[in-house]
Write a structure and sequence with these properties.
Largest sheet: 4 strands, parallel
Shape: globular
CATH class of the largest domain: Alpha Beta
Low-confidence stretches: none
Strand content: 15-25%
């Protein structure tokens, strides 16, 4: 499973890749040079909307993928085709869409004070990020993600 480092123009793509279980860093404050160096040292594929960044990566023998479109469906479709990514729903494993941390299943009674009352009444499976503590569950947004993935085929 490849690891990624997305440039600052690909925040939404970063979140989706994390949802599908891909370890994806997102460049927010780091310099382009630091992103490329880190990608080289940690065997990450750079994802960028900038031809300049992709050219710099190529010159330094860092694998990079130029993302031409702003459309998330087309971005995921392109990566699926180019890198043979698994975009299964539900994913085999997921990461925190916010911080890239790992998710671990939680018992509902352990997180009741952290979730909305209606959520606790309607859902039974929950996950928590080991880094930032964000709680996840398979809510109504799940159908939207399933439709999005269907559109990448």
């Amino acid at each position: 499973m490849p690891d990624f480092y997305a440039d600052s123009m690909l925040g939404k793509l970063s979140r989706f890749l994390r949802f599908f279980g891909y370890d994806t860093l997102y460049r927010s404050k780091e310099s382009i040079e630091d992103m490329i160096k880190s990608s080289s040292e940690n065997n990450r594929i750079v994802l960028s909307r900038s031809e300049e960044i992709v050219d710099k990566c190529t010159k330094l023998n860092v694998v990079a993928v130029f993302i031409l479109t702003n459309d998330i469906v087309q971005q995921l479709k392109y990566l699926r085709e180019q890198l043979d990514l698994d975009l299964s729903v539900p994913p085999h494993s997921a990461r925190c869409s916010i911080c890239n941390g790992r998710l671990h299943e939680k018992k509902k009674h352990d997180i009741l004070d952290l979730i909305p009352t209606g959520t606790a009444q309607h859902y039974d499976k929950f996950w928590s990020c080991t880094e930032c503590g964000k709680i996840y569950w398979v809510g109504s947004h799940w159908k939207d993600i399933e439709r999005l993935v269907e559109n990448t085929r």
